[in-house]
Every structure is written in structure tokens, then in C-alpha cells.
Specification:
three-stranded antiparallel β-sheet
């Protein structure tokens, strides 16, 4: 209500999040006090939905952004060249991995060549980040792809709260009421989730 951030407090052995001003008695803010365990459960529910419905949720947005990005890329020769070079490096990395898996390349040589490719990839990614600076469509597309990769890397629906995953994906949480939260993800998505009873 008042615009201030929440802070964590302990009460009767439980962790809660409350308005920092209200907690100090400096405001009559009506924002609800939220139990941390319920926030974590709401996040897990959200992750489960994202995991199960990622195709329906992310694919249409990704397709639209890819179309916009392709139009912008056509007008940006430097970006086109960087994307082509990155695709080439990724292909080389896949070939290297396959050769190593089949035993054609020794471990030491594989690590050395892998590290060299990773170094080149980082350099190109830095240049690409500089080239797309200012293009919201391209930045959002990259962040949505990261979310998609994170979801694809999960072995199953997350059943336990993982602070690293939470920090990796979440920008902030905005409480709407004592029953609902808006999870603002770093990729730009804002998703509403009910707090468990």
C-alpha cells in the first residue's frame, strides 16, 4: 500500500514478511503479513505450472519476439554476423562433444579445446550483448530463452523450494492481497499465483 519493501520477521517460531515501515510502527500500511512458507509454496505452484505448460505459455511469446528480432537483425549486419558466428561455435562444440563421447579425443585435449570454444563464445556473447543494447525485444527474447532452458534442464517438477532457482528467475514479488501474489520474473513475465490456505 505505502510503496515500501517487505522485510522478514520471526514470530512464534515462524518466518513472516511484512511492510518494513509498518513493522517499525511508522505507517498504517494495510499490506498483509505473509507467511514465508506460503510464499515458497506459491512459488513452487507457479514453477509447476510453468514446467507443465511451458509450451503453451512461452512458445507464442517467443515466436512473436523472434519475428520482431529477425526484422531488427536484418537491419543490423553486425548482429547478424555475431549470431552466425555463435551458431558456428555451438556447432563446433557439439561436434567436439560427440567426438569425445566416441573416444576420438582424449580428455585433456577435449578440455583444452572446450575451454577455447567457451572463451570465444563468451567474447562473442559480450559483443552481442553490446550490439542488442537498447532493443527490448531482443533482450526479452534472450531472457525468455534462458527461462525456457532453465525449465528444460529441470529433471521434473520442482517439489522442494530451491533458493538458487528462486534467485535465478525472480525479480520481485508484489502482494495483491493476503490471498494472491504477482511474481515478476526477470524475463519480463508477470504471473499471478494464489497463496495456499
Amino acid at each position: 500500500d505505502c510503496g515500501y519493501t517487505y522485510r522478514k520477521v520471526k514470530s512464534r517460531g515462524k518466518d513472516y514478511w511484512v511492510c518494513s515501515l509498518r513493522n517499525r510502527g511508522q505507517s498504517r500500511c494495510q499490506s498483509p503479513r505473509l507467511e514465508e512458507a506460503k510464499i515458497k509454496m506459491a512459488f513452487l505452484n507457479l514453477m509447476g505450472k510453468l514446467y507443465l505448460h511451458q509450451t503453451e505459455l512461452l512458445s507464442p511469446t517467443l515466436s512473436l519476439l523472434e519475428e520482431i528480432a529477425a526484422r531488427q537483425e536484418r537491419g543490423n549486419t553486425k548482429l547478424f554476423e555475431l549470431n552466425s558466428a555463435l551458431a558456428d561455435l555451438n556447432e563446433k562444440a557439439h561436434i567436439l562433444q560427440r567426438l569425445h563421447n566416441k573416444g576420438f579425443i582424449e580428455d585433456g585435449d577435449f578440455r583444452e579445446q572446450s575451454d577455447a570454444l567457451a572463451s570465444q563464445r563468451k567474447k562473442l556473447n559480450d559483443q552481442r550483448a553490446h550490439a542488442i543494447n537498447g532493443s527490448k525485444a531482443l533482450e526479452t527474447l534472450d531472457k525468455l530463452r534462458e527461462l525456457q532452458e532453465t525449465l528444460a534442464a529441470l529433471p521434473e517438477i520442482p517439489w522442494e523450494f530451491d533458493i538458487e532457482l528462486f534467485d535465478q528467475l525472480l525479480e520481485k514479488i508484489v502482494p495483491i492481497s493476503n490471498k494472491e501474489l504477482i511474481f515478476k520474473l526477470k524475463c519480463g513475465l508477470e504471473l499471478k499465483e494464489a497463496l495456499p490456505k
